[in-house]
From TrEMBL:
<dbReference type="InterPro" id="IPR002213">
    <property type="entry name" value="UDP_glucos_trans"/>
</dbReference>
<dbReference type="GO" id="GO:0016758">
    <property type="term" value="F:hexosyltransferase activity"/>
</dbReference>
<dbReference type="GO" id="GO:0008194">
    <property type="term" value="F:UDP-glycosyltransferase activity"/>
</dbReference>
<keyword id="KW-0808">Transferase</keyword>
<dbReference type="Pfam" id="PF06722">
    <property type="entry name" value="EryCIII-like_C"/>
</dbReference>
<protein>
    <submittedName>
        <fullName>Glycosyltransferase family 1 protein</fullName>
    </submittedName>
</protein>
<keyword id="KW-0614">Plasmid</keyword>
<dbReference type="InterPro" id="IPR010610">
    <property type="entry name" value="EryCIII-like_C"/>
</dbReference>
<feature type="domain" description="Erythromycin biosynthesis protein CIII-like C-terminal">
    <location>
        <begin position="278"/>
        <end position="389"/>
    </location>
</feature>
<dbReference type="InterPro" id="IPR050426">
    <property type="entry name" value="Glycosyltransferase_28"/>
</dbReference>
<dbReference type="GO" id="GO:0017000">
    <property type="term" value="P:antibiotic biosynthetic process"/>
</dbReference>
Amino acid sequence: MVLHDKPGSSIVMVCPPYPSHVQAFEALARELRARGHQVRYLCADSARCLPVPPVPPPARQRLAGLRDDIAQGADRTDRLCRHGPALIAGLRADLILGDQTEPAAGLIAEHLGLPMISVACALPFDPEPGVPLPFLGWRCDPSPKGVERLASARRIATWVMSAHGRVMQHHADAWGLGRRRDFADCLSPELTLAQTPPGFDYPRPVGGARVRHLGPFRDAPTAPFPDDIRLDPDRPFVFVSLGTLQGHRLALLARIARACRRAGAQVLVTHGQGLSAAQAARIPAEWVRAFVPQRAVLARADLCVTHAGLNTTLECLEQGVPMLALPLANDQPGVAARIAACGAGLRLSPRFATERRLSAAVRRLLDEGAFRAQAQRFARQAPAWPGAAGAVDLIETHLFGQASDPVTPAILRA
């Protein structure tokens, strides 16, 4: 931890109401407040700054289509840009911390002439030749052909997000900021604090020096392993989770459970309240729950079958658990591609994941020690991940200046 003899700063956080993103920002806020800084959240829904983040909407209400998601995001950015500048100026803010998925943070910071640090709660958006966009499950390809393919994908993504892009450009024009049609146009040019741990993301040798891979931002305590789950020590234990928003996929969860049992494993399935009791009873697993203390469960698991959500992936790496990734939405294809690329697991397309293919993949992951060895390599490094404390060290360095780099141990420079 870096201690400065400077007075506490006024910091405004701009974060969309996504539960996992809010959780990460809360961890940063707690660490900042513990060091004497004042933290406020810019809330689009109430057009004001709050001392605590707004409560995210219930997960089941967020199952909208892509067009609805884009429209909601564009409306949120518009309201933040209309009301945010006056609110932030009134707080005499010294710094804006902006989620990479909310371009209003960068637009407002540039308009007000304030320093801004980007926070990558998901995979970093920062452009890098050959590094695919987060929602693409491509391999890294810095060759001329790969760079051109990526440029074409970015043009298509900009077209798909054109409703959001028009809102961004409207406010950029009003403030004389130039072209701002892509989320990457609104990132901090100096620093991105990423939850991805060192060695998990693709290399970023050209434009990625500003991206600092710090590991997850969260508190350490976790609930204990459930008393009523009695594991058979002679059988491998597989934990299955498709996350909160995808827990309604009964057919896929049942198919995964059958495949795991076919491979000789005992299975725990969670569905995040996506299923009724009657639906959950149709899954052929030893245990089916709405929620479990995931970190405690992973500490005992031999394998995790996951949707490749970043939070679950980080917890698997932290515990040294290999993964079978079945990406379903958002940046999950990109996370799954990195799971496979770093050797900590395999990926399958859910569309083509038959019971036979799933069972073969589960057997391979359980039988071949190389996958667990790679996952455990991350687990051995996890205690050195700087996390939220290291992120705040960098924030304070950005605010106050520091001769040395306080959070670049050998693990981050490698």
